[in-house]
Amino acid sequence: MAMECIATLPQRFNENKTKEDPSNFDANLLNQQSNHIPQQFVWPDHEKPTDDVQPLQVPLIDLAGFLSGDSVLVSEATRLVSEASKKHGFFLVTNHGIDETLLSRAYLFMDSFFKAPACEKQKAQRTWGQSSGYASSFVERFSSKLPWKETLSFKFSPVEKCHSQTVKDFVSEKMGYGYEELGKVYQEYAEAMNILSLKIMELLGMSLGIERRHFREFFEDNESILRLNYYPQCKQPDLALGTGPHCDPTSLTILHQDQVGGLQVFVDNKWQSIPPNPKAVVVNIGDTFMALTNGRYKSCLHRAVVNSESERKSFAFFLCPKGDKVLKPPEELAGVISEREYPDFTWSMFLEFTQEHYRADMNTLEEFSNWLKNSRSF
Ligand SMILES: C=C1C[C@]23C[C@H]1CC[C@H]2[C@]1(C)CCC[C@@](C)(C(=O)O)[C@H]1[C@@H]3C(=O)O
Ligand SMILES: O=C(O)CCC(=O)C(=O)O
Ligand SMILES: [Fe+2]
């Protein structure tokens, strides 16, 4: 199995690293020091961004219309979602109900966090194998094709469903005094995304012709991830990538992006952009939900490009099932056992695979399936 081994200590890419953390990625420092980005951030020719990228036509789903129960609006929403999900798994959702003030506070605190000194950000440093915490360009995980970004990720479970640590408590434990408001805003943001994702699960269930409540109930006690993506300006955006080509291993992604633009999806054998829409969130199917639909709905290859003019920010809420749930399609979608596309698995195993054994890319689910079969054959 072609596993990308997790690098040992990465080569140093910048002599003038901060004393506290020799592997710290400081784009501003890099941008000041040279017109060339370090080699570790240069992607191979076949993966470099291209200029001639046109917008992808994705449907705009009016969630309020669907929730109104109006039969015409419901059938329009389910038809559009079904068509898009069978083809590439991406659609936009408007009238999503996320509070505008919450959104602007979320961006404000993101700005202040990522512009803080490295020693402050490193208080939340992601530790090996963990999907939460602060990561700067992933120098501690990979030795090449480094993404031009910093991230801050939180684990989230609906409090009433699971006694895991809240986002607020994580921030307070890691960052300490002075970050109470930041913890509060991302706790509220994650709670709002959780509510939105369960409504979208109702829509997806209906679009698949199964019980509306099936997937909503399946994901009620989720163990999800909220990730803040901060993409600094880059002097050589034609050589770098903010996030490399991948399919999300998770179930459903709700992405809120700022107005800069940079998200691209690989559809009809070419990269196509999803331009920002201030009134909409981008929703996409992940590998795990593709497996839950027995391959009917597609988890699609996508990436994020950067630019030399401005930084870019996005929030990705990754809806994930409770870690120990056995993931298999419902009867109505499974067909006879011989038609199963993927083996049964649990999200906790799949997540561990991406965090400790394999860098998520376009083949993650296939590589994970092979890894599972090999490990079960012993
Ligand atoms: C389960 C996850 C792993 C990643 C974050 C979530 C969903 C998307 C995955 C990721 C973004 C895909 C591209 C590679 C990756 C390493 C990254 O660029 O951040 C992936 C995330 C991760 O492993 O941290
Ligand atoms: O920031 C973006 O536009 C996409 C990020 C992404 O695909 C991810 O974090 O999985
Ligand atoms: Fe993604």
Automatic annotation (TrEMBL):
UniProt organism field: Brassica oleracea var. oleracea
UniProt pathway: Plant hormone biosynthesis; gibberellin biosynthesis; Hormone biosynthesis
GO terms (BP aspect): gibberellin biosynthetic process
Pfam families the UniProt entry points to: 2OG-FeII_Oxy, DIOX_N
PANTHER family: 2-OXOGLUTARATE (2OG) AND FE(II)-DEPENDENT OXYGENASE SUPERFAMILY PROTEIN-RELATED
Lineage: Eukaryota, Viridiplantae, Streptophyta, Embryophyta, Tracheophyta
The protein's name in its UniProt record: Fe2OG dioxygenase domain-containing protein
InterPro entries: DIOX_N, IPNS-like_FE2OG_OXY, IPNS-like_sf, Iron_ascorbate_oxido_reductase, Oxoglu/Fe-dep_dioxygenase_dom
Cofactor: L-ascorbate
Recorded superkingdom: Eukaryota
Keyword field contains Nucleus: no
Family: Belongs to the iron/ascorbate-dependent oxidoreductase family. GA20OX subfamily.
Catalysed reactions, semicolon-separated: gibberellin A12 + 2 2-oxoglutarate + 3 O2 + H(+) = gibberellin A9 + 2 succinate + 3 CO2 + 2 H2O
GO molecular function, one term: gibberellin 20-oxidase activity
